[in-house]
Specification:
0% strand, mainly alpha
Length: 93
Amino acid sequence: MDDFNFGDICRDEPGLGDLFTEALERKQNGIKGMNVWYREFKPRMERMVGMMRDKKPDYLKTSEAYNIVYHTIYNALTGGIDKEAHNVQDSQS
């Protein structure tokens, strides 16, 4: 896959969409948000995207996919990003 966005990534790994929704629900500011990110969200994210991912599709193992997911979920937790801005669909639908 040559060109993709967060919505595309969530279609291939629904757990990331769930993590994004959880980040929106648990929005934290400042140091507290950073602590929650590094302690709870980032370790879970890294099992689903980036070089530590152990299943296909291969594009989810790239640094580009990792960076898209990292910034999107981190900003949802700490900076007020909404679901519609990233074409995220609930994985339950």
